Amino acid sequence: MPPLDSGSSLTFGTFDGVHLGHQLVIKRTVERGREEGLFSVVISFDPHPMKFIDPDKAPPVLTVTRKKLEAMEELGVDMVVLTKLEPPLSEMSAADFVREVLVGKLKVRRVVVGPDCSFGKGGVGNVGLLRSLGSTLGFQVEVVPKQKVEGIPISSTRIRKAVLEGDLELAEKMLGRRYSVMGRVIEGDKLGRRIGYPTANLDVGDQALPPKGVYVVLADAKGKRWGGLLNIGTRPTISGTERRVELHLLGFEGDLYGEEVEVEFMRRLRDEIRFRSLAELKAQIERDEKEAREILARLQRGGFYGNIVRELEAD
User: Fold this and answer.
1) Which residue intervals of the chain bear CATH 3.40.50.620?
2) What pLDDT score does 49 carry?
3) Is CATH 3.40.50.620 what the domain over 4-153 is classified as, yes or no?
4) HEC string of the chain?
5) Any idea which of 186-195, 244-253, 270-279 has the lowest mean pLDDT?
6) Residues of the chain with CATH 2.40.30.30
7) For residue range 159-210, what is the model confidence (pLDDT) as tens digits?
8) CATH class held by domain 179-313
9) Which pTM value belongs to this model?
């Protein structure tokens, strides 16, 4: 790894989702750095800039910070700079951002961006200004073309829309992986335990979620990968009103309180339903579990995902 003093190959942005378009920009940043003996740097605005600009309009996030960093590490980046887009950074003009941050602090020699990049106060900086500044300040600018899936330009905004509308297939194609969320297990009312199907109540914060319903999922918990069922909804059978995200792991026995769990969406099973009794609810969950095991077994035989703990094949 070359030292930063040798200069940097750099890109910047929010990178929410680290989707296929982001991945190509970051890969190119790393490749150019290696070719030219430069330190590869990603500046990631985190949390989402709208959290500071207009919090009420801040979108749900696709990737929590930890997953974003893991994805960038896998792409071979030498250094990730996480920064909040708040004063004084948010008050910098586009030219000052380039002079003071990119050139002054990060010794930039090459900048790699997408065609719709923006920077500086009010987001007025663009590719044209970046190239103009590069010619006077001594760095090269490379623009990576916009990537498309099925003719649709890939963007974090488009992926959020797909997730929120339940189009997990399109989200997967644009992300280059199945959509997942991370959540910490918090105390619940133990209704699932009372009917023989204990669930983990997940706090997923401001992450984007698909519509209410029951989903077949894979979950990483306790150092293993489990098949499971995820319910997103208000639990109308008991007249609930607050949205809950509840995870049932197939074959798992134990306590998950306080654990952080990643849940990967595999298939939507059904809508959330109001049942006339808890007995009816339990009977439906039994059918859901049977169908989930069949779906996961088919996917495993087809080689669509890594090994799952043997509990999946129980019964």
Assistant:
1) 4-153
2) 87
3) yes
4) CCCHHHCEEEEEECCCCCCHHHHHHHHHHHHHHHHHCCEEEEEEECCCCHHHHCHHHCCCECCCHHHHHHHHHHCCCCEEEEECCCCCHHHCCHHHHHHHHHHHHCCEEEEEECCCCCECHHHCECHHHHHHHHHHHCCEEEECCCCEECCEECCHHHHHHHHHHCCHHHHHHHHCCCCEEEEEEECCCCHHHHCCCCCEEEECCCECCCCCEEEEEEEEECCEEEEEEEEEECCHHHCCCCCEEEEEECCCCCCCCCCEEEEEEEEEEECCCCCCCHHHHHHHHHHHHHHHHHHHHHHHHCCCCCCCCHHHHCC
5) 186-195
6) 179-313
7) 999 999 999 999 999 999 999 999 999 987 665 566 567 788 999 999 999 9
8) mainly beta
9) 0.88
